Amino acid sequence: MHLVFRCIICGEVFIGTDKPTNCPFCGAPNKFLVRGKAYRAPEEPIKELSVETREMLQKTLDLEVHATRFYLAASKGSSDPFVQSMFKGLSKTEREHASVAAKALGVPKPDSLNDPEGDKGSDGKNIMEADRLEKNATALYRKFMEESVEPRAKQIFQALMEVEASHIELVNQ
Known about the structure:
The protein is globular. Strands 2-1-3 form a 3-stranded antiparallel β-sheet, with no helix packed on it. A hairpin with a 5-residue loop joins strand 1 and strand 2 (about 15). The chain has about 170 residues and is mainly alpha-helical. The chain has 2 domains: about 5-40, Rubrerythrin, domain 2, CATH 2.20.28; about 50-170, Ferritin. Helix 2 (about 80-105) runs antiparallel to helix 4 (about 150-170). It has helices at about 50-75, 80-105, 125-145, 150-170; strands spanning about 5, 15, 35.
């Protein structure tokens, strides 16, 4: 029997026979996935954001847009099918993170999300840059999670922190 699950981070729907280990769209761990009937849409945009949390979410949006564009360029520049597909998948996940941040802020996603950014570089150079980006994002989201006061913002930063940490493992395999 097929079941419906919704991600409480990105709001996307997954239909399958079993709960996936991660959201197929934003990568959030399955603790952020609920059965479809139990899903309650989060408050978006987040009302009464503190100035500090608004700045954190804007930094998140900027970082995720940059990562999306970097991974698009890295994917297009690779001749290795595995590396190409890894970077393509990462670009889709980071694009979803940008969407989450934009919704929380109540702003549109930037048009530049579809534009590759940076020189295509070698796979080795791009993997090293991916490792740097993911480590930076993990540390930043941990800090944001600790410093933000709004429950929805904390939830977003926790999920993003966990996803970015898993990306460190991915790019270093």
